[in-house]
Amino acid sequence: MAGKPKLHYFNARGRMEPIRWLLAAAGVEFEEKFLESAEDLEKLRNDGYLMFQQVPMVEIDGMKLAQTRAILNYIASKYDLYGKDIKERALIDMYTEGMADLYEMILLLPFCPPEEKDAKIALIQEKTKNRYFPAFEKVLKSHGQDYLVGNKLSRADIQLVELLYFVEEVDPSLIFSFPLLQALKTRISNLPTVRKFLQPGSPRKPPTNAKSIEEARKIFKF
Ligand SMILES: N[C@@H](CCC(=O)N[C@@H](CS)C(=O)NCC(=O)O)C(=O)O
């Protein structure tokens, strides 16, 4: 039997967090090897482990996979979280690409210069309220089902709920006028695997803080 997937990143959310979420929601145990220094990253590069000299990298099923989306695609396919046919998959891709656009804005927020922060937060609030949340609320309303696609749990639900928690940290009021998103958040959070991941002590990482920014700067030299 194949061993546990091994995740290579530093000890923070960053681009690895959606991968942690998806594996955890699929009920897959994984190991993490944390980069602690620029030398650790250099070693992975010199050993030829990183296709584009970047992390996230996940060792899984004999592969060393790089590129966050490719890793998510593989996990979703493997654990049947990627729709039943190419049309469902196209919808899932469309939804998760939209989610990724908003996710990226929030991910980069802690790294922006202090004088730009208020404008960035205002933009995130505006886009969340007027573009992204209405779009996903509309999908749920259009079919009245419990999940975004195919009346069945998929990566789209898991990634959306991760995003809902992420947005909540910026502004908890943004979800107030979206009852179907609130209900989805509750439903997915109550799945046993997700509930476990949301408990303290799980591999879920805390919000980015000054310490993780400092660590990222040290490792990735920016
Ligand atoms: N498109 C890549 C981007 C990966 C990326 O930017 N990784 C950063 C850390 S979060 C990195 O390794 N930076 C070092 C470098 O680019 O040399 C992905 O989604 O995995």
Automatic annotation (TrEMBL):
SUPFAM superfamilies per record: GST C-terminal domain-like, Thioredoxin-like
GST N-terminal domain mapped to chain residues: 3-83
UniProt keyword Transferase present: yes
Transmembrane segments: none
Pfam families documented for this protein: GST_C, GST_N
GO terms under biological process: glutathione metabolic process; xenobiotic metabolic process
Reaction equations catalysed: RX + glutathione = an S-substituted glutathione + a halide anion + H(+)
InterPro entries for this protein: Glutathione-S-Trfase_C-like, Glutathione-S-Trfase_C_sf, Glutathione_S-Trfase, Glutathione_S-Trfase_N, GST_alpha, GST_C, GST_superfamily, Thioredoxin-like_sf
EC supergroup of this enzyme: transferase
Record carries keyword Amino-acid biosynthesis: no
CDD domains in the cross-refs: GST_C_Alpha, GST_N_Alpha
Record key words, sorted: Transferase
GO terms assigned for molecular function: glutathione transferase activity
Domain of life of the native organism: Eukaryota
Every GST C-terminal domain range: 85-207
GO cellular component: cytosol; extracellular exosome
Its EC number(s): 2.5.1.18
Signal peptide: none
UniProt record similarity statement: Belongs to the GST superfamily. Alpha family.
PANTHER family named among the record's database cross-references: GLUTATHIONE S-TRANSFERASE, GLUTATHIONE S-TRANSFERASE A1
The protein's name in its UniProt record: Glutathione S-transferase
Designated gene of the protein: LOC116565832
